[in-house]
Amino acid sequence: MALAATMAAAFITTAQAAPDFPRAGLVSQDSPLRGAPRDTASLQAQMGRGEALEIRGERGDHWQVWDYRRERGGWLRKSQVLLLPRGDGASAELLAQLRLARQQWGTEGLGLGLAAAYVQAATPAELASPGGAEALEAMGLFAERIADRASLPAARPGEGQLAAQLDVAARYGLKFEQFELDEGRVQVCYEGEAFRRVLAVGGTPEQRARAALALTRPECLSPRATPREAEARDQWRQQVLAQVDAAGLPVHWKNRLLMRRAAVSASLAFAHARRGLAPEPVPGLAEFAGIVPTELTEDDQPAYAEAAMRVNAARWLGSPAGARDFGPVQLTLVAGADGERCVELKDAGRLVARRCSYGQVAIASATMNREGRALTLAAQPLDGWRELWVFRKTREGWRVEVLPPAAAQPGLGVAEFAGWVPGGTQMLLAREVRAEGKYRRSFELVSIDTLATERQAAEPAQMGAFQRWADPAWRGASPIRR
User: Signal peptide location in the record (predicted)?
Assistant: First the structure.
């Protein structure tokens, strides 16, 4: 295994020159490597927590060590070095130490060293056991923690403890990817080799679920990916998630797996529809329907909201209707220039309004009020972003305007029709959006003449208009009502 070979290189030892030496050890805390066994001796190098060393001798309170990476020897205090166990019980002892390090933040470098030592010490049977999967999972978790710390807005990856941790991780063959986000922040992500090994060797259902979720993190999707690159990435994510059997998971882990599957299915359905392929009806809905909301933790709420918005944004993609007839008013979807899709509205056989988009326009979602003076339909220009097109009949004729999820840069959000209010002057609108890291839902009473919001609430139950006039189809199908 290539990963194991890279890790094992850090622990190469020569034939023993004395009964107890050489020994393998790890730097247990950031320490200076001295040229002699005293604290005033010349500084040879600054050692990072988790770096592997060969211990060749001792004098008093110091170990004489050799650093193969720097090809340099020196002295370290014994309190700054963790001796690695050896012999028949070494792998079990290393796994116990690894479990302890996993529970403590700030020990990522040391944890990586322990995981690498376990990979070297374990037998093939132990590596293929849940214990082997646990060590690989811990290695991935430590790398993920380092990447998350390097992604913080105030992070300085080239300085201090973070720089030392990244250096230690690179020493054990771990790789990181990074890309710049729209707001100028840099996102650092672990490449994921250890998690892929967990899926390859087996492990418990929970270990496999955690590995699959780590490999498919939405935070690590590059916003600079082309549509074809994004589609290929989502196909791979779907395949990774399919390797986990949800039936054997505790309900909270099953929820997390289903939320990720639902979000990925919705994104992939949009990519297929954009290429003219027929997506499944209501992509991701089966996975989303399997979530048990009462078992969601507080930490699960953002992922639940994201899954709901992505599934909701894509729920009209499987509808094949190309025309709708509302008596004197007909709505038709036609091909436009350069791949556009255009909606044409005819009144009494005369073309009175037309709007085009490069996104997905759902004619099947069209609905008209009983006065025949307003019509809405859903349009999805981007993955995870669905707008509402509103056709209105005014004194000057028919006009069409767009109601977005929010007056912001398109990201993740849905604006959808929720019902007509009798009288022909008002409609019900539901919005959900993620903006500036926060999720917001609003249920609004909107004027048809101005499209201005007259009243709104955070829940539909808080507005009498939604209690009386919400559309039955919307009540039964929209994930926004979760």
Answer: 1-17
